[in-house]
Design brief:
The structure is a single chain. Helix 1 (29-44) runs parallel beside helix 5. This protein has a 6-stranded mixed beta sheet with strand order 1-2-3-4-6-9, sandwiched between helices. It has 2 domains: 5-214, 2-enoyl-CoA Hydratase, Chain A, domain 1, CATH 3.90.226.10; 218-265, Lyase 2-enoyl-coa Hydratase, Chain  A, domain 2 (Orthogonal Bundle), CATH 1.10.12. With 276 residues, it is α/β, with parallel strands linked by helices. The chain has helices spanning 29-44, 67-74, 78-84, 86-89, 102-112, 128-134, 162-166, 172-181, 187-193, 203-215, 219-231, 237-251, 255-265; strands at 5-10, 13-18, 50-55, 117-121, 124-126, 138-141, 146-148, 185-186, 198-199.
């Protein structure tokens, strides 16, 4: 993971950075593995209360490293082309990570993380990079960022969990238009459409500031809230109301919840135990 992603944990905030700067943080096999490992590392550390996901260099993530598809285009025989593509197409329908395959889990792992994930996006977020951005709970984007559901450029469809996430963010016809055309749009338009939560001239600094604020709250309540929001797209009203009640019963009168009340009344920072 060390040559693709770094993780620095300070005061409950995990600063997760894509560092393949020579390729604008493009997604190759090693990057997929590193994203999954990073997600699992975050989930396993109870001291982590919020995550900032960003890219070093000129871009958040330029999308899939297209080397394999370049070889396909250069291979004259159909059978040879199929062989050249086998490393990226083999086993896509196999569910290797819960409800997802490996490539999907590089994005979905951030949805499953028990703490909020904030993506700080600059430069470009194309194709798989755009879907990786969507995996975060909150997306802070530079106004001039270039974004695209770019898969159609290569004759493909978005297949890294993007369709499951986009449906809850923007209108159906907007998703279709962007997917069918593959056109580029700005961070400013992304906010108008619903993909970007906030715009910032310094997305990473703003994301770290927000993460630090979240890390100062009751971590049990934050994790429970994420569980509810992760269920909201598919659950019935009855199921969501029940989930509210069950999770609230697990939180109320616990030491962390009592500390939230006391620290608020005493106007001091909360001193919380690690999330359960």
């Amino acid at each position: 993971m060390k040559d693709r992603i770094t993780i620095d944990v300070q005061d409950g905030v995990a600063d997760v950075r894509l560092i393949r700067t020579d390729k604008m943080n493009a997604l190759d096999d090693a990057m997929f593995a590193a994203l999954i490992e990073a997600g699992q590392t975050v989930a396993a550390d109870p001291s982590i209360r919020a995550v900032v996901l960003s890219g070093e260099g000129r871009a958040f993530c330029a999308g899939l490293d297209m080397g394999n598809f370049g070889r396909m285009a250069e291979t004259p025989k159909v059978e040879s082309a199929r062989k050249a593509a086998s490393d990226v197409t083999e086993g896509l329908a196999s569910r290797t990570h819960g409800i997802s395959n490996r490539a999907q889990y590089a994005v979905w792992t951030w949805r499953e993380a028990p703490v909020p994930v904030i993506a700080a996006v600059h430069g470009v977020a194309f194709g798989g990079g755009f879907q990786l951005m969507l995996g975060a709970d909150i997306r802070i984007v530079h106004p001039d960022t270039k974004l695209s559901v770019m898969e159609i450029k290569w004759g493909l469809i978005p297949d890294m969990a993007g369709t499951a996430i986009m449906r809850s963010l923007v209108r159906d016809d907007v998703v279709r238009e962007l997917t069918y055309t593959g056109r580029q749009f700005s961070g400013t338009e992304a906010q108008t459409l619903g993909f970007a939560t906030l715009l910032s001239e310094d997305p990473r600094a703003r994301a770290l500031e927000m993460a630090q604020e979240i890390a100062g709250k009751n971590p049990d309540a934050i994790s429970a809230a994420k569980k509810i929001f992760n269920s909201a797209a598919d659950a019935s009203d009855a199921d969501l109301l029940m989930q509210e009640s069950v999770l609230q019963a697990q939180i109320i009168r616990t030491p962390n919840q009592v500390e939230a009340v006391l620290s608020t009344m005493e106007k001091r920072p909360g001193q919380f135990k690690n999330r359960a």
